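comment on this one:
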Amino acid sequence: MRPNILVSVALLVAVVAFGYFLSPDLGSFGITIMSGLFQGMLLFLVASGLSIIFGLMDVLNFAQGAYFMVGAYVSYSVHHSPDVMAAIPDPNIRFFLSVISAVAVGAILGGLLERFLLRPLYARPVFQIVLTFGVAIVMTEAVKFIWSTNPYSWTVLFSLRDQSFQLFGQSFGVYRLVVIGIGFALIILIGLLLQRTRIGIIIRAGVEDREMVEALGINVRMVFTLVFTIGCAVASFGGAIAAPFLGASAGLANLFLLSAIAVVVLGGMGSYAGTAMGSLLLGLALSVMQVFAGKPQIGLPVLASMTPMMLMILVLLVRPGGLFGKGR
């Protein structure tokens, strides 16, 4: 077994074991693990797009968290719109429509950003960082202008959001399980897209030798636009499916961006497999640390917010390139 896999598995086992030590009751332990998996999959939906864009295009997109935020607002607005509610009374169908709308908006905004702003700056990485950081600020201010600065809570429920199941004497929300399943499904589907499909081969070949791929008559610029669009659409999708729990607020942009960057560094810059493992590991670590920090004898909630940085530092001390890094 490779050292990166051994280190990753060891960390996962250590985190889960510590979680069981804190909550030996199976019901409480199950809640901790379920919460960790849920947080991990939400982190993956932001970090995966960040990792794909950086790994294939060498662009560190600091606007990735803003796309998550926009996805949450669009999903909320469509699902709670009086006009849409009158046209589509069924809340389940309306939620499905709201998610599709959020993905479409994220994809359009991502494609426009790459085509008109990023494309001239591929040879200037510092300018890319400044640009995407500025775009994130602009998107946040635009959201505040359109929806105001007040946060929105999800009030119109739907069947998946309401349903629950019993396990070990505890009640678990079905929707959390669905989000976890969606996250794992996307890990597999995006991995297959990049490794087993013609477009994935073209993307990877275009990164290695752009001139050769263009000589074959393939429009590499359009391929890169597609990659960037997919990355932004995945982040918006994450915001849309997180909105029933987190609501919609301007703070979502920075909240998930910082953790997503920690995940990408933790897993190894540009490594898709590392991003998947890092998301899972950090999600579980966050949940376990929240339980630990909430103990009466500890009473330090700030420890939970410090978890991404502490875990990243711990891993980088052992593996400076991250779990699956290749010394880039």
User: Anything to note?
Assistant: Residues 26-57 form the longest helix (32 residues). The CA atoms of residues 92 and 126 lie 44 Å apart.
